[in-house]
């Protein structure tokens, strides 16, 4: 036992010494690196930069600038289109053609030119070079940070957790069409450099609920995501729904059959049809849930996979009653976020996030009292016992819920006043104040279904890394401000 204690003591002493020494070394180097990076000059509004000593660097998404080894600095040029709308990551020198940091083999630097949508050719060989950085398979946030740090320390370091896809294309008669990543050779369609079994003439993006284009697209018959054909036929009613606040999951809903896809994965056909339950407007609910014919489900993105969380079956069809209230033949329901917190040696932190479906009240008892600022901020409802504020205004810091119980009935009169009442306009800050003082409290109800995802716990090294990065950012910012002041004087 005594030996173990002595060993642990030695480990802690070493850890303390390293904790004192390493940050000083890293700070000194970061300061030097940041000051040097600030002197880099961008080349022709591209992703390429020239260092103070003339060396060529390529910027990689979320990773920093990487040395373009072997690039000839005198003949280096960026390949651009006349009316490009994004920073080009394609360049050439007298020896090679580059897609970011990668050499595209077989291309003649003298005759290579861009076609558009990410495609380029020299008349004999063609390539696709994606303008968008992607995460490497098996991406890990901590590893990504460490690789970026290594890139600052080691000039010749070339490993990054992000990359720009490049593909050699078996055609020299490519015609860019539709959008980034698309090209055709006659009736043959290419997407991101790969052949795609689709009709080039019928291409269109499937819309989101607010009319914007989604990542899902169709040729009028089949549906695709990231170049993969999905097990569903296209219908005009299809929409991408319920984008989560973290932009990690893309849900596609086909209302005729009740089919749901999450990042291209089709939900169980045995549980179809599904009715999606999600909030409108700004995505404040962590994720949607789905009512199937045999219960309630959600997509657990941490696995990933479809999880059944309740055997609840609505009385009749469940539908959106008003804004973020839902109803079946008997009851009114709502979604609500919650979090589980735990104390650790690193402090208090979120250990899990939850989304629940709750029964609010009887459908027959609920009545509308009035609009809040003409409906801009929401609506007040009431039943036989309570009053509720159904908010259409979300703020991640002050108004984090969609449904509130009105604890102070004086708030009902304030919320439902006509616009410009006595010359005063209701403002968002007035609602914040009601929440702060307890006049509005998050609604409570009978639990119908609850979904839960554990939050990945940061390591101690990650805490140290981000702490150092913050300190460096402050020091560098102060130094730049002082430098600017000296220049001004």
Automatic annotation (TrEMBL):
Name of protein: Cell wall-binding repeat protein
Superkingdom of source: Bacteria
UniProt entry keywords in alphabetical sequence: Membrane, Transmembrane, Transmembrane helix
InterPro entries from the UniProt entry: DKNYY
Pfam families: DKNYY
Chain ranges passing through the membrane: 12-34, 460-479
């Amino acid at each position: 036992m005594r030996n173990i204690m002595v060993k642990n003591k030695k480990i802690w002493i070493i850890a303390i010494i390293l904790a004192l020494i390493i940050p000083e070394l890293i700070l000194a180097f970061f300061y030097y690196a940041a000051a040097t990076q600030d002197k880099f000059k961008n080349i022709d509004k591209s992703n390429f930069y020239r260092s103070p000593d003339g060396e060529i660097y390529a910027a990689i998404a979320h990773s920093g600038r990487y040395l373009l080894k072997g690039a000839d600095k005198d003949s280096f040029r960026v390949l651009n289109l006349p009316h490009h709308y994004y920073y080009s990551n394609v360049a050439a020198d007298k020896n090679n053609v580059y897609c970011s940091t990668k050499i595209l083999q077989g291309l003649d630097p003298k005759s290579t030119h861009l076609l558009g949508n990410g495609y380029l050719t020299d008349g004999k060989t063609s390539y696709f070079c994606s303008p968008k950085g992607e995460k490497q398979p098996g991406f890990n946030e901590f590893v990504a940070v460490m690789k970026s740090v290594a890139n600052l320390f080691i000039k010749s370091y070339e490993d990054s957790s992000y990359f720009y896809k490049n593909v050699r294309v078996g055609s020299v008669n490519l015609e860019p069409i539709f959008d980034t990543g698309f090209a055709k050779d006659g009736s043959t369609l290419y997407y991101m450099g790969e052949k795609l079994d689709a009709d080039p003439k019928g291409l269109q993006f499937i819309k989101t609920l607010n009319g914007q284009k989604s990542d899902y697209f169709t040729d009028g018959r089949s549906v695709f995501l990231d170049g993969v054909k999905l097990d569903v036929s296209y219908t005009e009613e299809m929409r991408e729904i319920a984008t989560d606040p973290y932009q990690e999951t893309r849900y596609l809903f086909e209302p005729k059959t009740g089919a749901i896809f999450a990042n291209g994965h089709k939900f169980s056909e045995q549980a179809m049809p599904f009715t999606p339950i999600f909030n409108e407007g700004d995505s404040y609910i962590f994720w949607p849930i789905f009512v199937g014919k045999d219960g309630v489900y959600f997509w657990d993105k941490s696995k990933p996979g479809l999880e059944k969380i309740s055997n609840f079956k609505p009385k009749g069809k469940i539908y959106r009653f008003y804004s973020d209230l839902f109803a079946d033949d008997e009851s009114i329901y709502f979604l609500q976020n919650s979090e589980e917190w735990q104390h650790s040696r690193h402090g208090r932190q979120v250990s899990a996030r939850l989304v629940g479906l709750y029964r609010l009240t009887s459908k027959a008892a609920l009545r509308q009292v009035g609009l809040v600022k003409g409906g801009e901020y929401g609506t007040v409802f009431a039943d036989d016992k309570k009053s509720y504020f159904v908010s259409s205004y979300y703020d991640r810091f002050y108004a984090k819920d969609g449904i509130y119980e009105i604890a102070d009935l004086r708030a009902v009169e304030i919320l439902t006043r006509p616009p410009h009442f006595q010359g005063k306009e209701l403002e968002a800050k007035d609602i914040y104040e009601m929440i702060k003082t307890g006049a509005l409290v998050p609604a409570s109800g009978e639990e119908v279904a609850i979904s839960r995802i554990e939050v990945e716990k940061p390591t101690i090294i990650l805490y140290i890394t981000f702490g150092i990065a913050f300190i460096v950012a402050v020091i560098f910012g102060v130094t730049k401000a002082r430098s600017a002041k000296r220049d001004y004087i």
